[in-house]
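Entry:
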Amino acid sequence: MAKQVKLKVEPRANVGRAAVRKLKTRGFIPAVIYGGKDKPQPLQVAIRDINAMMSHASGENVLVELEIAGETSSRAALVQEVQHSPVSGDIRHVDFHAISMDEMIQAEVPLEPIGTPNGVKNFGGLLEQSLRALAIECLPRDLPDRITMDVSALNIGDSIHVRDIQLPSGVTAKVQPDLTAFSVVAPIVEEEPVVAEAEAAAAGPEVITEKKPEGEAAATAAPAAKEKAPKEKEQKK
């Protein structure tokens, strides 16, 4: 299950590019929390703290207990979106989605296979994964980091559908149960090219002219020279 981590943040009074640049010089990045009954609230969080939290996250869904400076009680939230710099990859903005620990939430959880299918190991088949993430509904305390499925018993032609996946207690799939999640297909056999052979057959057999020996070539050329000589004498007359 997703572990709820504590994160200290501060309200942010100033917004805009100039304010963001000043934040970064102080070691902070901008953030915002929205959802629930309250209006969206701009926040700022220490770069050191958010990097530490995200580096230890075991899944894409991070359940956070936000301790907002100046407020008496913490607020539960999910990390909704993390924006990274396209150049350096550093985190530059975080969106938090406020939630209630007693209300159902919906999320997408990574779906991962476990084991090597029998059809792959012994018959050269290929494992195809049609669903990389599974949309689910549950209480925040039941939110899993990921969902795994044992695929080792699959043979060529076998499939695992959403209805076959064993979900953790309190978790419900929010997609059609007959959707295919995993399947093992037969290996692709490449046929040898036959175009060149067909073209060669259509062209017919190759004719090879045998080279005559030098003696036979000279003997053949001599009579031809003799026949040519009388014709040249008659033309001179």
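The longest strand covers residues 75-84.
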